From TrEMBL:
<dbReference type="InterPro" id="IPR000843">
    <property type="entry name" value="HTH_LacI"/>
</dbReference>
<dbReference type="Pfam" id="PF13377">
    <property type="entry name" value="Peripla_BP_3"/>
</dbReference>
<keyword id="KW-0804">Transcription</keyword>
<keyword id="KW-0238">DNA-binding</keyword>
<dbReference type="GO" id="GO:0003700">
    <property type="term" value="F:DNA-binding transcription factor activity"/>
</dbReference>
<keyword id="KW-0805">Transcription regulation</keyword>
<dbReference type="Pfam" id="PF00356">
    <property type="entry name" value="LacI"/>
</dbReference>
<dbReference type="GO" id="GO:0000976">
    <property type="term" value="F:transcription cis-regulatory region binding"/>
</dbReference>
<dbReference type="InterPro" id="IPR046335">
    <property type="entry name" value="LacI/GalR-like_sensor"/>
</dbReference>
<dbReference type="InterPro" id="IPR028082">
    <property type="entry name" value="Peripla_BP_I"/>
</dbReference>
<protein>
    <submittedName>
        <fullName>LacI family transcriptional regulator</fullName>
    </submittedName>
</protein>
<dbReference type="InterPro" id="IPR010982">
    <property type="entry name" value="Lambda_DNA-bd_dom_sf"/>
</dbReference>
<feature type="domain" description="HTH lacI-type">
    <location>
        <begin position="6"/>
        <end position="60"/>
    </location>
</feature>
Amino acid sequence: MRSKQPTIWDIAIKLNVSISTVSRALRNAPDINPETKKAVLDLAHQLDYQPNTVAASLRKNKTDIIGVMVPEFVHAYFPNVILGIQEVANATGYKVMVMQSSESLDIEKHNLQAMVSSRVDGLILAITRETNDYEHIVAAQRKGLPIVFFNRIVDELQGSKVMVDDYKGAFMAVQHLIQTGCRRIAHLAGPENMTIGRNRLNGYLDALKAHQFPIDESLIMHCDFVEGRARRCTQLLLDMPNRPDALFAVNDPTAVEALICIQENDLSIPNDIALVGFSNAPHSTFVTPPLTSVVQPIHEIGQLAAQLLLRQINAPQQFIPETHVLDTTLVIRKSTRELI
């Protein structure tokens, strides 16, 4: 059975002083007798007294807690963004409440309600792959909850947004494949309902067009961040009579699934099929061969999202939503061929 938490009432009764005296002593107010203050602090330490943050937040209408909701923890991207968020939050006296939605719209809705009920001061959000109805998010915004979106951006939602130049990164990746001699390049694509999926697809298409390559719709497979689907899509591509000689994957987890499937078919990477991912996840250097990938400034994404949210929290009337698009680079490893 959980023991009762000591309160300022307990301290006041034991010392035979008023509650206001205890409160002033705990706040280090200047207008209190030093001996009384010491007695209060000593007893608070002895009782292991902890301030009631819920009551304090109700008094000042502020919890000093920001929420972060991400779709999954399986891969390194979202945990690394959270580290960037925590760095900014901790430096400014805020605590961070983290929830993950398991790529489920229902869980996302439940978690968002929990965040609102917990009175977080604001929320940093990356939606699930299932999220195609945004009313729960809009409803939270109508209640005055500041929200900053990152990574999985939806154009229809209002608010500050932090993303990378997905289009440029994809264009750069496909152009690299073309420059290394690849001529039949497939794309393992992301969800079409998300800006991230559309922009990376458009970068792929425009890179092909820029080099006068024909667009073959059969080479575009939507994996949509569903675990296991990339392996199935890769197998369909390998079973084609005229199979591709390169794959551009929407992210590194998708690329790694493709890599495993290619090797299970006794094909060589990059000699038979070259492979490029997106995000430069830590495990991209551990696979064999190491994965060529588009690098995102993950830590900076978290830092910037937190900075934007805190600015909105602290000056809601003056704040104007901002969209920040960060640059990407391409790191070339052994999963692609040498330049010709």
